[in-house]
């Protein structure tokens, strides 16, 4: 099993999400259950069933976040190297075929968000980039075939 890695920013966001779920969402869901229970016969009460399902999903998300925070290795900003690519670095690449610059932030798998340019260290791009230095040409296996990129900047 791969080591679970998270950036300091990702940890902060998870802690904020956990606080929101426990402090704000739990009381709302408890109220939904209370209201649904007041409708009467629980054996045929779809509102009650829906509220209990909502509670189950909420508690599962809380447990998942707590486990992640307990087990993940946090990469602090001060630990980041500007010489070698690792989790937490922002990387500027030059796509040789398409003659364009791309910027990605390398993050742990749970933080991955391609729309934001956050690439998982476990993805094909992330695996190919880890350990590379400025000036190196990286060959990345993608579903569309091989892509070659040059590392321009690590920050």
Keywords:
alpha/beta; Helix Hairpins; 7 strands; single chain; 2 domains; 3 helices; 155 residues; five-stranded mixed beta sheet
Structural shape: elongated
Number of helical regions? 3
| Secondary-structure element pattern, one letter each | EHHEEEEHEE
Alpha-carbon distance between the termini?
A: 28 Å
Q: Number of domains in the coordinates? A: 2
State the helical fraction: 40-55%
CATH architecture of the largest domain: Roll
The CATH superfamily name of the largest domain is Transcription elongation factor, GreA/GreB, C-terminal domain
CATH class of the largest domain: Alpha Beta
**Structural category:** alpha/beta
Spatial order of strands in the largest sheet: 5-4-3-7-6
Report the uncertain regions. Answer: none
Radius of gyration: 21 Å
CATH topology of the largest domain: Chitinase A, domain 3
Write down how many β-strands occur, each being a DSSP E stretch of 2 or more residues: 7
Largest sheet: 5 strands, mixed
């Amino acid at each position: 099993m791969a080591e679970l890695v998270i950036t300091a920013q990702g940890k902060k966001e998870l802690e904020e999400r956990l606080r929101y779920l426990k402090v704000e969402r739990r009381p709302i869901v408890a109220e939904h259950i209370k209201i649904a229970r007041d409708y009467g016969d629980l054996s045929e009460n779809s509102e009650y069933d829906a509220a209990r399902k909502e509670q189950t999903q909420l508690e599962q998300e809380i447990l998942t976040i707590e486990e992640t925070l307990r087990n993940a290795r946090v990469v602090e900003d001060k630990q980041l190297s500007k010489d070698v690519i690792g989790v937490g670095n922002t990387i500027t690449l030059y796509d040789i075929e398409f003659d364009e610059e791309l910027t990605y932030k390398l993050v742990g798998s749970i933080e991955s968000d391609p729309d934001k340019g956050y690439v998982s260290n476990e993805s094909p791009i992330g695996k190919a980039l880890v350990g590379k230095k400025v000036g190196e040409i990286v060959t990345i296996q993608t579903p569309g075939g091989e892509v070659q990129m040059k590392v321009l900047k690590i920050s």
